[in-house]
Specification:
- With 489 residues, this protein is α/β, with parallel strands linked by helices.
- The strands form five sheets. It has a 23-stranded mixed beta sheet that branches. A four-stranded antiparallel beta sheet has the order 4-6-11-10, with no helix packed on it.
- Helix 3 runs antiparallel to helix 5.
- About 2% of the residues have low confidence.
Length: 489
């Protein structure tokens, strides 16, 4: 007997206003009457739903557990596009500048977080990846149950301008630095600045500074903050008890008041209004406008302060120098070392210590080898591995010893080429001033008026030479002289 066709049932269909969902009300099952997919599909189609494979799969899933009271089908909503953005490289995000935390090296000696060590500036090296410019996406078009397309809202481009002069942008959106510098991100513009300019003070607003590029500071540098740069540094305001490190030249137009805690490490030349209670090492020349007071200063070149005064403390200069006044009316002890570079002497002494240590190690190895060989061939064969280790160690010691000897010779040659005992004093050298050379220490018993020169004669003895008449005087006539042995300055 042929199967009777399924009857068409007029089930009500309710479609949402946006056309994305439709509900078909089957009602309660009567007498166990079942429905199939085609009946439901036909009812939905009469209700305005455009049938496709996705809708049929939804119907099948709804009927899988038997006849439901309601069948719900859905269209495909549009997926809006994503906005463009900057995907920053590692450590490059200006919005995630490092702050002191438990996992950063920013603690003081007591283990507390050191907020003075915080730096907000990001170093960038040439050809280093800064970011990727991520383009916006268009989104995905949707489709409602009536078969109509639903437009997607495209993403907006990133509101960030990339400076073409300092950043190279590749076709894939990768942005690389064209130059060394510091990352700048202001008013939606990203760039690499060749110079870091601080318009105000270096304090808690800026944090400490550690950059590769030159730095200019319009204001002051407050206590305990650090400025470190591999290039030049210029500070217009007062530098307090701060730490300054440069690979290049340094200018302190407002002077340095170190309060016995300030520290300067200058890789080039230095020019300052004055220095007060600061410890400093300058590899090049130093020019001081007014005074150096109660400082520990080492100058690898010459010191120029024709109108200035050197009062108290100790100053070491390697090259020819000129000072207006040394010491004071109160006879404060003031030490000036001529032809002496304490930094280079420390390097030479370190090389000497390392060489002596290697020689001790070589001697110990030779002694041990002798002990083994003294046992005779029969017993010495048991120490084959140890003898091979001693041979390897001897080779390493020889190489290291040769390297240190070359380094020491270079340092000595460099030191000998630049050191000069020649000082011009324009006004006066006060009593109790100590003048130190590699060979002697002389303390003045009386003041000497300038202009005069402090220098060595042809015999290598320290003398004073009057600039006005050219006459010279042995230092023993006005000073107590003590001859020095090497390493006892």
């Amino acid at each position: 007997m042929p199967t009777a066709p399924k009857r068409t049932i007029d089930w009500p269909v309710q479609m949402a206003g946006d056309g994305l969902t439709a509900e078909l009300y089957l009602g309660r099952a009567e007498g166990g009457e079942a429905v199939d997919l085609e009946q439901v599909a036909d009812a939905l189609a009469r209700g305005g739903v455009v049938m496709d494979d996705v809708i049929r799969e939804q119907i099948a899933a709804a009927l899988k557990g038997g006849r439901p009271e309601v069948v719900v089908v859905s269209g495909e909503p549009a997926v809006d596009g994503e906005d463009g953005c900057m995907a920053w490289g590692a450590g490059m995000s200006p919005r995630e500048r490092p702050r002191p935390s438990e996992n950063q090296q920013s603690k003081d000696a007591a283990g507390a977080v050191d907020y003075y060590a915080h730096s907000k500036f990001i170093n960038v090296q040439k050809n280093e990846l800064i970011a990727h410019v991520v383009e916006p996406t268009a989104g995905e078009v949707g489709r409602d149950l009536r078969g109509r397309e639903i437009a997607a809202v495209p993403g907006e481009p990133a509101e960030i301008e990339v400076d073409d002069a300092s950043i190279r942008r590749e076709d894939d959106g990768a942005c690389y630095a064209r130059i060394d510098g510091v990352l700048s991100f202001e008013a939606g513009r990203v760039a690499v600045e060749e110079q870091l300019t601080i318009k105000g003070n270096v304090d808690f607003d800026t944090g400490s500074i550690d950059v590769l590029c030159p730095v200019q500071v319009a204001g002051a540098v407050r206590d305990r903050f650090v400025i470190a740069t591999q290039r030049d540094l210029s500070v217009r305001g007062l530098i307090e008890a701060a730490t300054i490190r440069t690979g290049g030249d340094f200018e302190a137009a407002g002077g340095v008041a170190g309060k016995q805690r300030g520290r300067l490490e200058i890789g080039g030349d230095m020019k300052a209004r004055y220095l007060n209670q600061v410890e400093a090492d300058v590899r090049g020349d130093a020019v001081i406008e007014r005074e150096i007071m109660q400082c520990m200063l080492n100058v690898g070149g010459g010191l120029r302060m024709e109108r200035g005064a050197l009062i108290s403390g100790r100053v070491s200069v390697t090259g020819e120098s000129a000072i207006g006044q040394i010491g004071s009316d109160s006879d404060e002890p003031t030490v000036i070392e001529l032809g002496i570079d304490r930094r280079i002497e420390a390097c030479i002494a370190e090389a000497d210590r390392a060489i002596r240590k290697l020689e001790r190690q070589r001697g110990q190895g030779e002694q041990r080898r002798g002990e083994i060989e003294a046992m005779g061939p029969r017993h010495a064969s048991r120490f084959g591995d140890e003898l091979r280790q001693l041979d390897d160690l001897a080779v390493l010691i020889a190489r290291r010893h040769e390297h240190l000897e070359r380094k020491r010779k270079r340092l000595l040659a460099k030191y000998a080429a630049k050191r000069e005992v020649k000082l011009r004093v324009g006004r006066v050298i006060h009593r109790r001033t100590q003048i130190v050379t590699a060979g002697c220490r002389a303390e003045l018993r009386q003041p000497l008026k300038g202009p005069l020169w402090v220098m060595l004669d042809e015999a290598g003895k320290l003398i004073f030479k009057d600039e006005r008449d050219g006459g010279s005087m042995a230092i023993e006539g006005v000073a107590t002289v003590r001859q020095l042995v090497k390493g006892n300055s």
